[in-house]
Amino acid sequence: MGAEVAAAIETWLAQFAEAALKPAEVDHFVRSVDDEIIAAIPEIAGDPALVEDLHASTRAHWRNFLVGISEEFRLALPPSAIALSLSIARRHLDINVLLKVYRVANKSVFRYLTEHTRAEALPPGLPRDETLITLWLRAERWIDESIEQLIDHYTGERALLAEGAHARRAETIEALVSGAEPTTAAEQVLGHKLMLWQTAFVLSAPPERDVDVPFFDVAVQLCQQLGLPRPLTHLTGSRELWGWVATPDEPSYDLAEVAEAVADLGLHLAVGRPSHGPAAFRASHLQAVAAQRIGLRATAPCHDYRQVELVSLLGHGELTRAMVRRVAGPLLGRSRGDDALRATALAYLRAGQNVDATAERLFVHPNTVRYRVGRLEDLLGHRITRDAAMLEASLAWLEVYGAEGLG
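Request: output the structure for the sequence above.
Response:
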């Protein structure tokens, strides 16, 4: 390749990087690459927290590569890529999961680069083959060296997890979550009374949050604020911590007391229903995970499964959203008055359609409730008691996700 052609290719590479770094283009790239990875790797597809780690890793990888594409090669491995490898290790997934991420990404990136070096996309006179080869060799080197370093991070983390008490503790927790019966031996390994009341929680950070979060310290502080004892904790990824609190009696707490603190930290707290009995450890945990998944879409900093159980069971799928639009569509105005009407309808249905109980819950006069119910029925075109269960479910869904959750 002549010096003149090489210089022209370098000029084009700088232009390519500038265009590819635009936010919309980065979003398109991350979406296209990660969709292929998720479709190919069920271990990632079934784990929302791991999916978020993947998105953060792909985005940072791509941006770092583009920023240095026209400079002398120097791998700048992003922390989020390391976090993904650690999360895969902490879930005791095989190293092949990590390697497959990069194998799939390798093919997807090559297709993307091939598409963007079509003859019609290049300046006149710029040779396509040389341009594609130059671009691909740099991307391939980036991917190869990233894999080498990430394998080291993965194996180092697996070595730590395999050591002594830490490994036994993690294995015991995972066995209980998978349905194993609680035993005295398990209690001794964990230092946690399994036959007391169990209240599970999940403390997590969103993908845009700095992953350097002191999860354990935060979990202890939040439990103290809620009047709960020191928790058993298990770090499952760079952005997620599981926890359990054991109490002799059913605990009483209000997540509103810590909502501001959780929000200030940029975190999300999900808590399962306090449970008792042999399956309590697992049952409360599954509920906390379900509430945490709501937190991936809803904006509130805390979710108590007891308050969002119905919404959790409804899910966020297309059929659920269609039901909400169909049943509560006439109430989807965005004014304060519309918000008050929806709140009244939900309180009225939850109170067994008792006007006085609804007025007491909303701190308004009973006549205000009667007026609003009449207004609601005018908007709906039928009595509020018709399909009351469907309406209550739809309004509960809107209470959590808001009208914007309908897309």
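The beta strands are 197-204, 232-237, 240-247, 268-271, 302-304.
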